[in-house]
Amino acid sequence: MKRLPLLLRLELERVAGSGAVIAFAVFVLLPTLIFMYVGLLFWAPLSRQAIEVLRLIRPGVDVYHNLFNDYISAVKSLTGLVLGFWAGFPMLVMVSIVIAVLISGERASGTFELLVTRPVARGELVLSRILSFIFLSLVILLVANTLNIATIALSLYNGLGLRVVVRALQDAWKYIAYYTAASWLYVLAVTSLSLVTAIYSRRTFLPVLAVLGYYISITALPGFANAVTHGLIARRIAELFRYLDISRYTSTILYKWVYGPAAKMTESGIAVSYPAAFTIVLGLSLTLITLSLILVERMDLS
Amino acid sequence: MDEAIIAKGLYKRYKRVQALRGVTFKVPRGRVFGLLGPNGAGKSTTIKILVGLIKPDKGEALIFGKRAGSTGAKSLLGYAPERFSIGNNWRLIDFLVYVGRLHGLSERLAAERALYLLEWAGLGGYEEEKFGNLSAGMKKRFGLVQALISDPEILILDEPTEHLDAIGRLEVLNRIRELASRGKTILLSTHVLAEADYVVDSFAIMNRGRIIYHGSRLDVQGVVRIVVDKPAEFEKALHRAGLEYSISGNEFIVETSGVEDEKLVLRICLDNNIRVIRYDTSSSISDIFMRIVGAEKR
Predict the structure, then answer these.
(1) Which pLDDT tens digits describe chain A residue by residue (302 residues)?
(2) CB-CB: which of B45, B87, B102 is closest to A109?
(3) Best of B49, B70, B71 to disrupt the A interface by mutation (most A CBs within 10 Å)?
(4) Residue A192 and residue A185: Cα distance in Å, rounded?
(5) What's the complex ipTM?
(6) Cβ–Cβ of A110/B81 closer than 8 Å?
(7) Which residue out of B86, B150, B187 would a mutagenesis test of the A interface target, given it has the greatest number of A Cβ atoms within 10 Å?
(8) In angstroms, rounded to a whole number, what is the distance separating the alpha carbons of residues A7 and A124?
(9) Where in chain A are the domains?
C-alpha cells in the first residue's frame, strides 16, 4: 500500500473532471437547485408577509423567535428531500452507475489490465478509485447541503435581516453535518455493494443491474411474498428483506442525530437501534470493500 | 544475474482447457527472445503470467530473480498486450504521464520522456490527441510507447505486429530491433515466423501448452538446400556421412548442426565430382517451426 497516497492524488485529479462524477454532482445538486429556485421565489416574500401578519394578529410576540423555529423546522424537513427520496432509489442507481463507469469501464477498455502490470498492487488501484469517489461524493454532498441551508438563510435575510440569519446558522451547522454524514454513509454502503459486481464485470450495465436487483428484492419481493403467501410466512419474508434495506439504517442514524440518543426509529414493525444501524452500515461497507480487494488480488485478469 | 526471465514448469488450466503443461524456458539478459507457436499454443497465457495478470496453477516465473507479478518484478517490466486498448477519452500525454508516475517518475520527467517517446514512435504532435481518435497502427505504436515510459530493463510484447499492415509491421519491427541494439531484453510472441526471423536471437516454439523446441538462431542455420547433377551418388554420400536429409523434388534438404556440417556437404560434392546446380543455406526459423510443429500434428 506504499503507492496508495500517490494513486489517490492521481485518481482525484483524473476523476474530478470525469463525466461520471460530474453527472453525480448534477444529480445531487438538482434537488438543491430546485429548492433554491422555489425558496427564493416564494419563501422570501412569504417570510416578509409572515412578519407583517404576526405583528398584526399578535402584537408584542417575538417574531424573530417564531420564524427562527420555522427555519429550524425547514432545515429538518430537508431530510425528507435529501434522504427520504433523493438518497433512496435514485441515489442507489446513480452511485452504481458511477462505480460501474469507474471500475467496469476500465476493465472493459483494458485500462485496468494494463495498469495492474505496473508496479502497483491491484488492491491499491481499486481502493484509489473507491476512495476518490467516496471523498468526492462527500464534497458534493457537503456543497449540496450547504446550498440548501444557504437558500433558507437568504430567504430569512430577505425577511428578517442578518441578526436572525446569524443566530439560525449557529444552530444550523450541525444539521448540515448530519445530513451530509447520513447521505454519505448511504453512498458508502451502496458504493461497496456495486463494487463487488464491478470488480468481476467487464460490462458496465451489470453493476447497475445488480443494484436494481437488490432494490427490487427489498421493495417488490416482500409485497410479492405477501400476495402469494398470506400470514406469518409472508410477514417473515417481508421482514427479512426489509432488514436488507440500507436506507432504513442510514435513516435511523440520522433520526438519532436529530432527535437525540434516546431516539429509536421504528418502521414497519422492525426496530433498529442506533448502534446496530451504525454497525450494520459501516460493517457492511467495510466488509464488502475488503472482500472486493481480496477478490481482485486473487482473480485472473485475462 | 544473466537470466532476465526464468519460467519453471508453468501449468495453467482454464475450466476445460489445459492452457499450459509445464512450460520451462530462460531468457538471457540483453537478448531478443521469441515465443513462437500457432494460435492457442499458450503464448499469451505464458506472457500474462510473466506480467502478473494471471497466476499459474503450478510452477513459478521469475523476473531478474523476483517473483512475476510482484511489485518488484513489475517495476522492471514494460508490457504491450496483443490488443492494446485504454479508455477512448485518455489523451496520450495524460496516460503516459499517469503511467510514468506510477513508476515513480516526477510529473516533469514523465512528460519529457513521454514527448521524446511519442516523437521516437512517429507520434510526435499527437500528444494532445485522444486515444479513441488514433488509427489501428498508431494505437499499436502507442502501446509500444507506454511500455517504454519507465525505460524498463525488460520489454514484453504480445503479438506486436498483429492487425497491422505491411508498412506498420516493418515500422514496429524496426523499433524493436533498435531497442534490442540498445541492450534491452525483449520477449515477444508471434505466430508470424518471418517476423521472428527478422528480430529474434533465440526462441522457443510452443504447441498445445508445451515448449517443443528451445534454441538460438545459430542452432537453426544448419539446413542446407541443394540441387546437384548426380542425385543418386549424392544421396549415397550423404548416407555414408551420417547426415539427416530429405528430398523435395530434385532438392535435397540436409539438416546440419553448424558451419562444419555445411562444409561437409560441400566436401562431399567436391570429393565425388558432383556438380552443384543450386545451393542455399538460407534456412530459417520457419523451417524449424514447420518441421517440429508439423511432426507434432502427425
Answers:
(1) 678 888 888 888 888 878 888 888 888 888 777 777 776 676 666 666 777 777 788 777 776 666 666 666 665 666 556 555 666 777 788 888 888 888 888 888 889 999 999 999 999 999 998 898 888 888 888 888 778 777 777 776 766 667 767 776 776 677 777 777 888 888 888 888 888 888 887 788 888 888 888 888 887 777 777 777 777 777 777 777 778 888 778 877 877 777 666 555 555 445 677 788 888 889 999 999 999 999 888 888 87
(2) B87
(3) B71
(4) 11
(5) 0.77
(6) yes
(7) B86
(8) 8
(9) 4-298
Evaluate whether B103 touches A141 at the Cβ level (below 8 Å).
Answer: no
> Residues B59, B63, B65, B67: what is their CA dihedral angle, to the nearest 10 degrees?
-50
A3 close to B (CB below 8 A): yes
**Strand B185-190, strand B66-67: pairing:** unpaired
Cβ contacts from A onto B, under 8 A: 69
User: B101 and A6: CB-CB below 8 Å?
Assistant: yes
- The 10s digit of each residue's pLDDT in B28-39 is 999 999 999 888
CB contact under 8 A, B54 and A109: no
**Cα of A157 vs its chain's centroid, Å:** 29
Radius of gyration of chain A (CA): 22
A117 CB near a chain B CB, below 8 Å? yes
Contacts of A109 in chain B (CB under 8 A): 85-88
**CATH code reported for the domain at B3-76+153-216:** 3.40.50.300
| Closest chain B C-alpha to A118 CA, distance in angstroms | 6
Contact list, A301 vs chain B (CB under 8 Å)? 48, 53-54
Short-list A195, A201, A189, CA closest to A128: A195
Domain spans of chain B, in order of start:
3-76+153-216, 222-282
Q: Mapping DSSP to helix (H, G, I), strand (E, B) and coil, where does residue B224 land? A: strand
Contact with chain B for residue A162, Cβ under 8 A? no
Q: How far is CA A294 from CA A127, A206, B84, in A?
A: 11, 20, 27
> CATH topology of B3-76+153-216 equal to that of B222-282?
no
Which CATH number applies to B222-282?
A: 3.30.70.100
